[in-house]
Please model this.
Amino acid sequence: MGGTPTTSSGEGFTMAWLLLAFAIAAEVIATTALKLSDGLAHLGWSTVVAVGYLISFVLLARALKTQLEVGTAYAVWSGAGTAAIALIGAAFLGETLTPLKIGGILLIIGGVIVLNLAAAH
Model:
């Protein structure tokens, strides 16, 4: 009621999760471009950074307006983005992926799952 976010099922709820998924993708693209921008010195990559973060925040805001609770949405958005960036860094940017980092990624994923389960009750 009155635009208050809920965790009910339905078409709006599915749309909220799709918006959140696209927000995460935009944030991951922007963060990857941030690394490639050489401290925002490269205009092309810097433009990708600015546009990607803008799109990400707009989509996150829309997902929150649609149906998602802010705590759950932000945990999924930041957690999934963090895990994806760590994996992209290791796969494409020459960064190391140690067992400790893998453990951290698994803890992030586990935390997101727990928050989603808690929100469902």
